[in-house]
């Protein structure tokens, strides 16, 4: 009976690792789907948005 729990725990761990790999692969595919122009535009939007939240004396 004790070995059965360890087997179940091991299988659950393996399934967790596999599910994590699937999530990472999907995110990577989604990230690579952007064109370089789209990435530049998104980065510029982020930089402009980040600059607005800082106090006047701290902008670089």
Order of helices and strands: HH
Could you give the count of β-strands? 0
Principal-axes shape call: elongated
| Cα separation of the termini | 64 Å
Low-confidence stretches: none
Number of helices: 2
Protein name: Secreted protein
Organism: Nonomuraea helvata
Describe the protein in words.
- It comes from Nonomuraea helvata.
- This is Secreted protein.
- By secondary structure, the chain is an all-alpha fold.
- It has a domain at 18-47.
- Helices cover 80% and strands 0% of the residues.
- It is built from 2 helices and no strands.
- The chain has helices at residues 2-32, 36-52.
- The longest helix is centred in the N-terminal third of the chain and has 31 residues, at 2-32.
- The model has no long low-confidence stretch (mean pLDDT 86).
In brief, what are we looking at here?
The chain has 60 residues and is an all-alpha fold. It is 80% helix and 0% strand.
Features of the shown structure:
Secreted protein, 60 residues, mainly alpha, 80% helix
Layout of helices and strands:
Elements: H1 2-32, H2 36-52
């Amino acid at each position: 009976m004790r070995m059965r729990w360890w087997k179940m725990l091991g299988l659950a761990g393996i399934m967790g690792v596999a599910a994590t790999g699937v999530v990472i692969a999907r995110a990577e595919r989604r990230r690579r789907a952007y064109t370089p122009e789209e990435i530049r535009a998104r980065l510029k939007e982020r930089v402009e948005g980040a600059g607005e939240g800082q106090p006047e004396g701290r902008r670089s």
